[in-house]
Design a protein that fits this description.
This protein has helices spanning 15-29, 61-73, 96-103, 121-133, 142-150, 174-181, 201-209, 228-234, 237-248, 264-272, 290-297, 308-314, 328-340, 342-356, 361-381, and strands at 2-7, 33-40, 52-57, 79-84, 108-112, 136-139, 159-161, 187-192, 218-223, 255-258, 276-279, 302-304, 321-322. The chain contains 15 helices and 13 strands. The strands form 2 sheets. It has a 7-stranded parallel sheet, sandwiched between helices. The chain has a 6-stranded parallel sheet with strand order 10-9-8-11-12-13, sandwiched between helices. The longest helix has 21 residues, at 361-381. It folds into 2 domains: 2-165 and 360-381, 3-Layer(aba) Sandwich (Rossmann fold), CATH 3.40.50; 174-356, 3-Layer(aba) Sandwich (Rossmann fold), CATH 3.40.50. The chain is of the alpha/beta class. Strand 4, helix 3 (96-103) and strand 5 (108-112) form a beta-alpha-beta unit. The chain starts with a strand and ends with a helix.
């Protein structure tokens, strides 16, 4: 089968670009040919790899039209995979993408990364239109599946749940990694990802402030660069507010910023030396978290605020601990339990590992390939 993946793409640093790269690489390993239509942006210039066949300038509506026409002419493309996320396509709430599908004559598989329970009228119009014309729709949780049908009018028989993929990280020894990184004897709490206000890191810092008297060797690792688009619009102001908060709380010996965009191997090392992964998102409607999925993939004990994705992925079989609310107090109580109860910590790690094994990218890519094959076979039958 020959696929075209439409979305942002590496070397752009964002979650959808990483997802697109992982999906493409793993489909390729399965023998499926996958080329890329990369959505660029007006703020950065990207040097794309050879698999990028088309580049769509985010805010140029004519690029969406011309690319759709070019894809129609390309007999080497059987199916288009559209990665949908608000903010990566041009127009109000990404409405330029509707110009692409209006002209596209090939079937497309829609991958929904954000499914809001209470969308604005504009957001609902865009996603509803995409769902209506899609050959099939992929979402990543049961909650999103229900909302796609009840809020956006998606036909239930077109909606499939395929979990967020996780790289097959090399399993490593926590104690040895701590020695290598200079954290021997420290209790490590980690949050990673592109840094921005939506990550709720200030809540995490305040939570851990409540624990340093009891856990004197506690260290909070905040791993990742500030989101490039945030830096473009306001500089590194958010990170500076976090640094000032650390100083005000006297947490300088307990918080370390790793201000880098880490390659997978290094990221895996930080995750495997972690004692508890902290996911303090303040937005309870957060439908997907790739960072939480990665922590599951590494079998970490996870503490989270009660956003949608965390509730679904962690609550079942107690794969992690989910707070009652988004307060620092609630998170501190659960982190304390992980650090104070070795048996609980081990149980959480084992249960996370069991789920993590089922969401590795090779397994997830196979599900995409199987779904695509069934779609194309049904199209031929018609």
């Amino acid at each position: 089968m020959n696929f075209l993946n439409l979305g942002t793409y590496s070397p752009k640093q964002c979650g959808i670009a990483t997802f697109s790269k992982n999906l493409r690489d793993n489909l390729t390993r399965l023998g499926e040919r996958t080329s890329i239509a990369a959505v660029s942006d007006p703020y950065f210039t990207y040097t794309y790899p050879n698999e990028v066949s088309y580049v769509i300038r985010q805010n140029k509506i004519e690029d969406y039209v011309s690319t759709a026409n070019a894809v129609n002419r390309n007999i080497g493309i059987d199916l288009v995979i559209i990665q949908h996320e608000y903010g990566i396509y041009g127009g109000a709430d990404g409405e330029y993408l509707l110009e692409f599908i209006a002209r596209l004559k090939k079937p497309y598989l829609l991958v929904t990364h954000t499914v809001l329970p209470y969308p604005t009228a504009s957001k609902k119009v865009v996603l509803s239109a995409l769902c209506r014309q899609a050959a099939a729709i992929v979402c990543m949780t049961k909650t999103s599946s229900s909302m796609l049908s009840h809020v956006y009018g998606a036909a239930p028989e077109k909606v499939y749940i395929i979990h967020h993929g996780v790289p097959a990280f090399k399993i490593q020894d926590r104690k040895l990694l701590k020695q290598e990184y200079g954290f021997e004897g420290r209790e490590l709490i980690t949050t990673f990802g592109l840094i921005g206000p939506e990550k709720g890191i200030e809540i995490g810092i305040r939570a851990l402030k409540r624990l340093v008297m009891k856990h004197k060797n506690l260290m909070y690792l905040i791993v990742g660069r500030t989101h490039p688009m945030l830096v473009e619009h306001e500089g590194d102001r958010y990170r500076e507010t976090l640094i000032e908060l650390v100083r005000r709380l006297g947490m300088q010996d307990h918080v370390e910023f790793v201000n880098k965009f880490l390659e997978l191997e290094k990221l895996g090392e930080y995750l495997y030396m972690t004692d508890a992964y902290l996911s303090p998102y303040p937005d309870l409607n957060q439908a997907i978290s790739g960072t939480l999925a990665y922590a599951l993939g590494c079998g970490r004990a996870i503490v989270s605020t009660p956003y949608l994705y965390a509730l679904e992925m962690l609550s079942q079989d107690q794969r992690g601990l989910v707070a009652d609310d988004t307060t620092a107090e609630a998170l501190a109580e659960l982190v304390d339990r992980v650090l104070s109860e070795p048996v609980l910590k081990l149980k959480l790690e084992k249960r996370a590992t069991l789920l993590g094994a089922k969401v590795k990218w090779p397994y997830i890519a196979k599900q995409y390939a199987n779904l695509a094959e069934s779609l194309l076979e049904s199209k031929i039958a018609i």
